[in-house]
Fold each of these.
Amino acid sequence: MKTIGVLTSGGDAPGMNAAIRAVVRTAISLGMNVKGIKSGYSGLIHDEVVDLDARSVSDIISRGGTMLYTARSKRFMTEEGVLEAVETCKRHGIEGVVVIGGDGSFRGARDLSNHGIPCVGVPGTIDNDISSTEYTIGFDTAMNTAIEMIDKIRDTAQSHHRCSVIEVMGRHAGYIALQVGIATGATGILVPEIPVDLDRLVKKIVEVEKTGKKHFIIVVAEGVGGVDKIAEYIQEKTGIDSRATVLGHVQRGGSPTVRDRVRATQMGNAAVHLLYKGIGNRVVAYRRGEIVDFDIFEALNMIKTFDAGMIDVAHETAI
Ligand code: F6P
């Protein structure tokens, strides 16, 4: 392969820039040319393609967001859209594409691969909800941002003897909520993977209050939602003044942590090595301390089990 493309797709995640940088520089080191595709699959349909060289990706390793922009393209979900994207690849001599994004982006990579443009997916989403990998780019930074915010909320909750109910991101998944809840010493963690039992939570708050605790942090995954209602319910049942906070998109920004920069660099590098060998229709993953890869179809059909044991750790330590 002489020329490859790179795009970012779906929600942005801190570390995507580090992955782009790794893709560009690895490809150049291996003697290939690189084209940057702007705004995800939409840019591939609308021919937003630029040449990238080693200097195009200078000073981006420390920056959040994605220099290539990102989008969720409805048109690319149609056969016509995929064919338009294939045409753009042919026009620019793009023989393979590295797709940095989540599961939805991998489905696009599979479709493009099936139409003769080999693609390799790199997992990038703060949610860490991709089954084939234990780690996704952006997860660590998002969690660190969330704990920084929650530590600040704790200061005011403590001063007022309040219960703070805080929503963290995770549209369908509670991975951020679970680890952030443990890291902030939350009394309760609510995730979509486990049925929500508000009465059990209230009982716990009341029991813990009896031991002298006067402020409480409850971390709720976005996929559970309803933090206003949950705060009202807790206040009504316990008499503890309660407030709800939605952290929102602040979790998606900021300079990536060491972990995100390094994983992104390893994964971007691995993706290019696959394309260099002419191997497409794969996704790169992190498993048991190693960078590995899987067939996209296989990866999309994997099931990620939620670590319920961690919930027990959280319960037993938040008393
Ligand atoms: O998938 C990442 C994520 O941040 C989810 O946690 C969240 O639900 C979603 O993206 C928000 O998407 P958008 O930025 O399009 O509102």
Amino acid sequence: MNFVGEHILSVAQLDRADVEQIFAVADKMTPFAQRERVTRVLDGAILCNLFFEASTRTRLSFGAAFNFLGGSVRETTDMASTSLVKGESLKDFAQVISGYSDVIVMRHPIDGAVAEFAEASRSPVLNGGDGSNEHPTQALLDLYTIKKELRARKMDLDDLRIAVIGDLKYGRAVHSLIKLLKLFRNITFHLIAPPALSAPENVVNELRETGHEVQHFEQLQHGIQGVDVLYVTRTQEERFSSSAEAREYKGLFRINQVVYSQHCEPETIIMHPLPRDSREAAQELSVDLDSHPNFAVFRQSDNGLIVRMALFALILDVVDKVEDHSAPVGWITDARKWD
Ligand code: CP
């Protein structure tokens, strides 16, 4: 794929070479995200962040990534403060906003709404999560993290064994990650969910059709054995018809130090797209694992910065110009290392 000027709406747009290209550019972005160098390559460019659902990581890391490349960010975080509430169509909205921006990131509660917006946008649009459909940049940063963690174990993505745990029905990060992993060879998926929250049939069928192994589990302790990665997710309460209905599924699967040490292999990587639900009824991933060396969760959120910088650089065609517009950082003595 030639990324220049393209929308990124679904991981289905990407092939393996595209993913590897994004990761290679992300590697180059590391000194800028770690504040060793600054670049002004996107000086004068404007990102418009349109987030119509709650977000911590996606909104702020897209914004920070654009700032790290020298660009400016405009944001709307509440649909009620836009004229969409006066009946304006997404298409009119897109015509207008794309006149103000060089690139747009949108999160929307309805499946397919970001693609509908993109159809009328004159600027490239990145999907920051649409309903329970997809969250493509989350999947890219997750995969980048898995690759990096495996590298330390002298492994690569082919032949990966991964347990995906929790709300696999509504979890858009899960849907995108599974579809992205399909591009690699011989992946074993352990899908751990209650039957009512199992992964969409079409997603599972595509895995099998492309030669990957899929096993379903309802018992956590069986599914988390013999895998390289645990990918834990929360119950997506906002997609249920009521909090009471969501509560039926919270707390069903809990990974903590005891469960991990009894059932997982010693090298198993622990991941979660965040936010984790730390309320008493849920706690799908205990804080007692936070200091474990295999706990990669905050490395995931750090990696989100460089993966999103890479996407901006590719889409706005500045990959080869980043260095020319850069200088050492003058305002901080110790670069902040997070790798
Ligand atoms: N992982 C993720 O999408 O987090 P936010 O909802 O905080 O953006």
